[in-house]
Amino acid sequence: MASAKDDNLLTPYRTFLLDLSSKLLTDDLEKLKFACKDAVPYGKTEEVTTGFKFFDLLEQNGKISPQNLTPLKNMVKAIGRADLALEVNEFMIGNDVPDGAQQDAGLQDDNPSNGPAVRQDGGDEVVPDGLDVDLIEKKADKTMYVAADQPLEEKVETRVEAGHVSCGLLQSDPPALNDPPSAQRTTPMAHRDNIVSTTSGRRGTSAPVAQQSSTKPRLSNPEGQGIVQYVNFLVLEGYSVQIVGGKHFSTPDGEFVELRSGTQYKILLKNSHPYACNVDISIDGYDVGGWIMHGGQQFTIERSAYEAKKFTFYRVKKAPKDSGIDPSRTEDNGVVKCVFSLEAFVDIPVTVSGSPQPLMVSFAPSATVGDLKEEIQKQLNISPDRDQMLSLNNKELENHMRVRSVIESPGSLILVDVELDVTVEVSTSERCQIKIRPGEAKIIDLMQKIEAELEVPIKDQKLFYGKTRLSDNPHKGLPEKLIYSLNRTLVVIVPNYIEITVENSASGESITLKIDKEKRLTDLVQEIPSCRNMDDNQEVVFLVDGRELSPVKDTGKLKSLGICPGSRVKFEVRVLFIKVFVAGLPQGRLTVQCNPLETFQDLLNHVQSRTKMAKIGDATFSTKGRVFDPKKDLNTLQGNYFVFSS
């Protein structure tokens, strides 16, 4: 038995939209169609002539619903109909729509979360972040489809011929979904110039596409969502396709790029993997060609400037006769199909420490040694480290080298441990273990670790590997023989230290020093902090058991000079000479070197001797306002600049 409610087929929501439609002016409707241009394909809005048809179109595209009229409120407000926006808001409140619920749904297409979903060949399958390896292994070739829009129930068709191909590097590399897939390698590439065609892969029911936008490529994986979505381009397992010249839309019917009939476009292809691949392109079901894409390369395929009607979208009814469009090819028209095929991988044995059998790594010959190294580290579950050494016949391989050149050379690959244990035998019969990273360490790094372990300064170390004195070239790399040897042992000769106390006679301050007993007084001077930066007219004199010892004259070793463990040595800094600058002479300024114990009379004699002046007996000196008479001022020289007057 039907209720009264069942007989009332017109809901308040539908009644409200009909009433709102009657209040829209023709100009309002055109403004609304323009306002939703980024959310609804133009091909679907161009024949809308009434408000309720416009609202129906918004519903079909999931932009409005009885639970969410916020986008409609925003649009009518944007076109200047604040009165209608108020009515929409009142209707939402009267129908208990929570404030802010799903606000602006469908109008945020610039947000990565509303971008195209990445799909597999199997129709409704999606590629989640962290794709299952078993799923990848079932498909050796990766196929992408880009569907064209179908405005006015008519297909937009594409007729393409490859008129021009340019190759370059992406400025902003699109991120790969997953690590390089370990798929079946059934598509060999014996030569770099060979193009291998393939027809593997089938069309999905809802084709993923690439979006042309002024924004930079972005990747979004919103928390709680299993679908990875992109803006600007479609990425599947490290391969990228972008259509330049159209506008991307996401609708309940699928993802597609809308272009006006007669629009020229370009196709951008990107191989984000470090190894090469083959790509075959077909458009409208017609083969365009195939290319080898090297690791990290991008192809831009576009129309030649000298040929017409190439890489141009047309409606079926508007397509020129010479465009080659066949209306009967309904499944192929308007579809850009790109099939990516891996190059043939090879099995590479790698010797790893602690493993009795070599590790077999399947990898691409066109990749670099650095990429191969990362793959080995991944299989060993160790952190990526491009400084870890991979060697061939005890020779380190550079990261930029191609794997092809390595596998073509005889010998075995060895992955050297990230850290090596080096035994250091000390001349004092001690022994210690040092850990070193061979891929990045120098001899100086090894000596620094020895300094920290033995408390022996680097300058006092004599480091040997066999008969080679490593400490003579501290900034060189570690010897290859040491790295690949099973017995990594070094010998370091360290001094036989003694401890002595050194006291400054002038200040009474003293310090205790540890110094090699084979050193000399000149070395002892450098160990005293206050004596390291003396002027060239100063010298240190040591007092040992009442004897004055000069580093210049007494050149014997400390032990021979009576300095033993526990000795207390006093020192003082003496001035050897002073330079006096004398001005006011007929000859100009004169520099005179004097003994600091000399007097002004001695200085006058030096001046007379240097200038050959006959009458100079009554001369005086002045500095800083003071006048010195050589006959009366008999003290030693104290200043360093004097003005001569006579």
Give a description of the structure.
By secondary structure, this protein is α+β, with helices and mostly antiparallel strands. It is 18% helix and 29% strand. It contains 14 helices and 35 strands. The strands form 9 sheets. Strands 3-13-10-7-6 form a 5-stranded antiparallel beta sheet, with no helix packed on it. A hairpin with a 5-residue loop joins strand 26 and strand 27. The longest helix has 13 residues. It starts with a helix and ends with a strand. 31% of the residues are buried. This is Astrocytic phosphoprotein PEA-15. Keywords: Apoptosis.
What level of helicity do the residues show?
10-25%
The global form is: elongated
Rounded mean pLDDT score: 73
Number of strands: 35
Question: What is the rounded Rg?
Answer: 44 Å
DSSP helical segment count: 14
Lateral arrangement of strands in the main beta sheet: 3-13-10-7-6
Low-confidence regions: 1-5, 97-140, 147-231
Distance between the termini: 140 Å
Proportion in β-strands: 25-35%
The profile of the biggest β sheet is: 5 strands, antiparallel
Structural class: alpha+beta
Summarize the structure.
Residues 99-110 have a biased composition (Low complexity). By secondary structure, this protein is an alpha+beta fold. Helices cover 18% and strands 29% of the residues.
